[in-house]
Amino acid sequence: MVDPVVGAWVLEFLLRRPDVGDALAGELLLALPLPSPLPPRLSATLLLRRLAADLSRRSVSPRTLHSLHLLYLLQSSPSLAPAFTAVAVECTVSPLRLRPFSSSSGPDADADADAEFFDAVNRIWNCQVAELERSEAAGLVSCALREARKEMEAAVVDPALRTELAQRETKEAALVAVQVCLEEMEKEMGPTFLEAAADAIVRCDCETHRSLVVLSDKLRSFRSIRLEPVERGLEIGHPPSKIDRARSTVEDGKGIKLNDRNIEKGQMGTDQEQGYSVDKNTMSCELQEEFDHKSCDNNYSDTPQSGQMDPVPPDPKDLGKKHHDIPTDTFLHPDEKHIRCSNLDANTATNLDATTMQKPSLMNRNATAHTLEWDSIPTHYGKSPNMEKEMDYVSSMNSKSSSSLCETKEYVLRRRKRKWNSLEEETLRKAVARYGAGNWKLIKRCHPEIFERRTEVDLKDKDMLDDGVYTGNRKVV
DNA sequence: GTAGGGTTACCC
DNA sequence: GGGTAACCCTAC
């Protein structure tokens, strides 16, 4: 069994080799045992490879933007800010180039392109960039970025400016900026750990030997903190090794895709219903889900190609956080992440009480059930893996205490009823006017603080109520 | 993810 | 007890 720390060294070395293709890199990432979270240096290497892959395909996408942001958090470099600006502009402007040149295509195509542009302006400039300015990554916010933001916002109300932007060579500028950034950052990173070690051995450089020993000790102590519980967990359940899993995936003909999307809702649901959970100290499955959950999932749905490493673009709220420790799963395909999580789940589940395992799904409706309210709202009904931990029961029944009610399984949990305040109502009204009714997910995402305690369905319900579409539960015809 | 309709809690 | 706002479920 390869030591995870050694696995990280080997992977870093191989990823820097130009003759190791993306598909092979993907297999290596999956097959090699690695520390979790990944060491920053390896994370940076992965992100640089991701950027290189984008360049080779001449692709500039929101993922490129996210890679640059993550790189900044890992290793700030002066070349990152210009690249970030150029990529942000290209990601915003690119929908405009889809507008038809001939008028025969009709106004609908124009409107669609404009709508995509408006959405990009909001998502990238109003959310991501605005949040960057308040975050630890504020160094990415240059004068050029501010100027670009003003121009993009001006283009929202100026059709002529949109036409002019559509004709600009923003893609070429972004590719050049990323290329420059890539070259500079690779230069700054210097040789890989293994290369440095090899050099030291060849030159018998005593000082470097000492530093290698110190570094090695540090890495080992890091491993002992983060990985020992995982190793213990793996011993309990005897799951297939990562190499086995990688092999079976290849044999299944699925190939290995390395991207980062949310764990399939259904898959997680199955685990929750079975009462599986993952110890926070053992693995970052829950943290990963939180990381995923906070990610902007709209507009990043382009299918990744096999063998690419695709970190997910961040939620604007997350832009202010340091992601020096990027979980291993950040670079994994959802299928593989699920394999990893479910294996660990199964291991952890062996320690669970049988009664916990048999707990019925909270989503099962019982017509005779009484209702309890709880304070903490899951973002999606029944989806929170920590639902039981988060529950704050508020009994609405005077005859029974909360504790006695909790002991039965016949009670449906219900959120505490909260009246809409004027700020929420006003914000919703404005948001509907701006984005249109029906874009509840977008509206919630653009006002996360105000609608923190509201679900997308709540927004819809409130809007319909205010519009007089229905009164209470009676639809107005 | 959203729409439509059902259920529940709250207020008078 | 009735009206209604808020919440929930489920089909698409």
From TrEMBL:
Domain Myb-like: 412-462
Domain HTH myb-type: 414-469
GO MF annotations, alphabetized: DNA binding
Source organism superkingdom: Eukaryota
InterPro entries: Homeodomain-like_sf, Myb_dom, SANT/Myb
Biased composition (Polar residues): 297-308
Pfam family, one: Myb_DNA-binding
Keyword terms of this UniProt record: DNA-binding
Record's protein name: HTH myb-type domain-containing protein
Organism: Ensete ventricosum
